[in-house]
UniProtKB/TrEMBL annotation:
<protein>
    <submittedName>
        <fullName>Uncharacterized protein</fullName>
    </submittedName>
</protein>
């Protein structure tokens, strides 16, 4: 069941992936920093 395994793997690594993704997006676009700040704050 690839879908179930993928879901499990994503959940297990969600924290690490999210941190990496946010850093990559922030590095790619300063405007995105403002969007993230608005979304989280």
């Amino acid at each position: 069941m690839p879908f179930i395994w993928s879901t499990f793997h994503y959940t297990a690594s969600a924290s690490h992936w999210s941190t990496f993704h946010i850093l990559k997006v922030m590095a790619a676009s300063p405007i995105t920093i403002g969007n993230l700040a608005y979304y989280f704050l």
